[in-house]
Amino acid sequence: MCGIVGYVGNREATTIIIEGLRRLEYRGYDSAGIAVVDGGKTGIRRAVGKLRNLDKVLSEQPLAGTIGIGHTRWATHGRPSEQNAHPHEVEGITVVHNGIIENYLELRRALSAQGRKFKSETDTEIIAHLVASNVAKGLSLVPAVRATIEAIRGAFAFVIQSEHEPDKLVTAKNATPIVVGLGEGENFVASDIPACLAHTRVFVFLRDGDFAVLTRSGVEITTFDGTPVPVKPKRIDWSPVMAEKGGHKHFMHKEIYEQPTAVADTIRGRVSMEEARVHLDGVSIGDAQKLNRFIITACGTSYHAALVGKFMIESIARIPVEVDLASELRYREPVIDEQTGVLAISQSGETLDTLAAIKECRTRGATIFAICNVLESSIARECAESGGVLYTHAGPEIGVASTKAFTTQLVALYLIAIHLGRERGTLSKEDAQELLTHLREVPKQIESVLSREASIISIARRVAKARDFLYLGRGPNYPIALEGALKLKEISYIHAEGYAAGEMKHGPIALIDEKMPTIGIATAGPVYEKTVSNLEEVKARDGKLIIIATEGDARIAEIADDVFLVPKNDPLIDPIITVVPLQLIAYHIADLNGTDVDQPRNLAKSVTVE
Ligand code: AGP
Predict the structure, then answer these.
(1) 304 Cα–ligand 1 center, Å
(2) Whole domain around residue 578: which residue ranges?
(3) Which SS3 state, helix, strand or coil, does residue 180 take?
(4) Burial, 176: exposed, middle or buried (Cβ in 10 Å; 0-12, 13-18, 19+)?
(5) Of 99, 295, 355, 529, which has the fewest beta carbons less than 10 angstroms from its beta carbon?
(6) Does residue 174 share a domain with residue 116?
(7) How far apart are CA 605 and CA 372, in angstroms?
C-alpha cells in the first residue's frame, strides 16, 4: 500500500506533490521520491525512510516544473533503498506504482534478453521499461501505456509521465485505489483523497479497468482499450483528518473494512489453480521432508493466529505443530534440532520477545521463518538469513488493535499449510484445488459480514455497559474466542476472557449470570453440536448469549439472545470470517463507551521492550 501523487497545472509541482505525499504517509514510509519535468528534462529526487529525508534532499537540490509525480513506498518487492524508491525512470519515462505485478519476473527476463538493464529490484521498473520500449518502437505515450497494460498482470495503480510529452499524466487502475482531483487549469491524481483536498473537493474515482489522461485543460477517461468512459465527478466534504481515515471515524474501523482487499492482496500471485500449488515467494521452506516438527511463536493477536495455524498445518500437512508464546519460548530451553522449523508471526516484525525467541531457536539449530507485514523489519531480516519470510500484504496497520494483519496472517498460514501438504504428498491436487477455491471466497464473504454492520451495532448497544464478557469457541474457533476477547479488552478496557467451550464445566460456568454476556462461536463444522450444548449450559443459567453461527442455521436462534450469521466456508478457513463480527463488536462497544480506539491507554503498536 503506497502513496502516489501526480500534478499537472501552472503552479510549482514540487510543493503540491510533497504536501500531498505528507497526507499519504500513513500508507507507507520506507522511502519517498519525486520526478518533475521542466524544459523537456526530468529531475528526480529520492530518499530512503520518511518523507522528511526527501525534504532534506530537495532543500539541497530543488526541482522546478509544473508537472510531476511523487511516491511514498510500502515495500513489497525489493528492500527499502534509494535504488528501489519510486519514481523509476527509463529513457525519459517515469513511473510511480502501487500494487503487485504478478508476472514481473517473466517480463524482466524477456526485457533483459532484449538487452535492457535494470537498476532496481522492484516490479515497478518493469512498467517504465515496457513503456520506454513501446515508445522506442514509435508509439506516443498513450498507446505505449495501453500496450504496456496488455503485457502486465496483477494489481496496479500507476501514474506515468514522459519528458517527451510533458503536457500529460497517464494513469490506470486495476484492483488498487487511485483518484483524480479536478481543478481549474490544473488536475491531480493520487492514491487517496487526502493528498488533494487542499486544492480541490471534486474527485473522479477511477474503477478497475479505467485509464485516464490528465492535462492542464482536463481529464479524459477510457477503458484500457480506449472506449470512452463518462467522467462522473463527486464532491467530497470531508475534513483532511477524516479523509486520511477514508471517511471512517477511526483507523481501526478503516482497517477492518480493508480486510477484503488485504486478504485478496495476500493471496494474489501465490496460487496456481491448475497446478494446485502455492508459491511462497521469499520463503524457502526448504526440503519440506526435512522438517519433522514446527514451533510457531508470537505474541498477542499474532499468537492467536499461530494457534489457528496449528490446526491448519497439522490437518493439511500432517506435521506436528507446537505453539508457544514468544515470551515463554525464549526461556524454557526448548528441545530443538535441525529438523525443527520455527515460524515467527509478527505484524510489526519488531516485537522484542518474538525476535529474541527465534534467535534462541536459531542458535539451537532450528530453521527459522517469519510471517511479517513489514518488509526488512528485524524479525524479517533475522529469518531471511535462514528459512525466509512470507509477507502479508495488508499495508500499514495504524490502529493499535490488530485486525487486517490478523486475517492476512491466517491466510498466510493457510497458504503455508497447503504448500507443505502438496510438497509432502498429504494433500491431493483435487483437494488442494477445492481448498484454494474456498480460500478465494473469503474477500467476498468478509464483505458480506461488513455489509451487515448495523446488526452488530444494535448488539453492541445492548451490551456496551457490561463489565465482564466470556467468549467461547471450539477447534479453530477457540483461538478466535481468545482474539475476540483481546480485541474487546484492549480497546474498551472491559474485562473479557476467551475460553475453550468444552472447558465451561471446569470452572467458568460459575461466572455465568444475567449480567455477563457470553459470545459463542457455533459455526457449522465437526464441533458444532458440542459447542451448542456448551452454550445451552450458559442459557440454562440465565446467561446472555450472543452467537456467531453459519447462514442457514435456523436452530441457533432458539437459545441465543442475539445471532449473527456468517457465510459458510471450510472449517479451517472459517476463523478468517468469524473474527470479523468480533472485531466489529469490540470496536462499537469501545466507540459507544468513548475510549481512544486507535491509541488505547497503556498500549503501543509494537512492543519493542520486554
Ligand atoms: C493486537 O491487537 C495487539 N496490538 C498486540 O497483541 C499485538 O498483536 C502484539 O503486540 C504482537 O505484535 P506483532 O504482531 O507486531 O508482533
Answers:
(1) 10
(2) 447-592
(3) strand
(4) buried
(5) 529
(6) yes
(7) 14
